[in-house]
């Protein structure tokens, strides 16, 4: 949408809303990436690192299944920053993801570490001992929210 306006001296002023909004969105997105990268770095530092590296299980009920493989540090490597591009002219976004595949290792277990597992009740007590939560994403996000003032939005010449 463009609005044309002529001043009393005959000068022409053109307001091109789509161009202005596009430039503002690009500036905001440009400053969101470092913020997301700081969250990723903090989460990687807080994420636990396993000590076991092994291939897929060769025996037992789940023999040959890729999700039985383990690699030390795979959870940390699975924490990534991704850019979601808008398809219909909206604002692009940066998100921090966790639990993606790293090579052939599936890091599905991140949610059990972040939120823990409740102990079993009754007959399940022996088979489901539970697992305490050791959050790494939530503290990383909270830390960056308190440090949000550090991000500077500078005015640039368009």
Description:
With 158 residues, the protein is α+β, with helices and mostly antiparallel strands. It has one domain (16-150). It is 32% helix and 15% strand. It is built from four helices and six strands. It has helices at residues 17-46, 74-77, 110-115, 137-146, and strands at 2-6, 12-16, 80-84, 93-97, 101-102, 105-106. The strands form three sheets. The chain has a two-stranded antiparallel ribbon with strand order 1-2. A two-stranded antiparallel ribbon has the order 3-4. The protein has a two-stranded antiparallel ribbon with strand order 5-6. β3 and β4 (93-97) form a beta hairpin. The longest helix is centred in the first third of the chain and has 30 residues, at 17-46. The protein is elongated. Residues 153-158 have low confidence and may be disordered.
- What is the count of helical runs? 4
Query: What is the ordering of alpha helices and beta strands?
Result: EEHHEEEEHH
Q: Distance between the terminal alpha carbons, to the nearest Å? A: 19 Å
Radius of gyration: 24 Å
Number of strands: 6
Largest sheet: 2 strands, antiparallel
């Amino acid at each position: 949408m463009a609005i044309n306006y002529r001043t009393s001296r005959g000068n022409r002023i053109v307001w091109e809303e789509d161009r202005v909004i596009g430039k503002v969105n690009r500036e905001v997105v440009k400053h969101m990436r470092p913020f997301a990268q700081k969250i990723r770095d903090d989460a990687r530092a807080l994420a636990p690192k396993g000590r076991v590296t092994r291939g897929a299980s060769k025996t037992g009920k789940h023999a040959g299944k890729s999700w039985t493989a383990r690699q030390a540090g795979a959870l940390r490597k699975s924490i990534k920053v991704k850019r979601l591009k808008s398809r219909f002219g909206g604002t692009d976004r940066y998100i921090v993801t966790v639990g993606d595949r790293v090579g052939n290792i599936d890091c599905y277990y991140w949610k059990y570490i972040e939120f823990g597992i409740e102990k079993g009740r009754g007959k399940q007590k022996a088979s489901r001992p539970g697992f305490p939560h050791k959050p790494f994403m939530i503290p990383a996000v909270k830390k960056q929210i308190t440090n949000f003032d550090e991000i500077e939005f500078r005015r640039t010449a368009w």
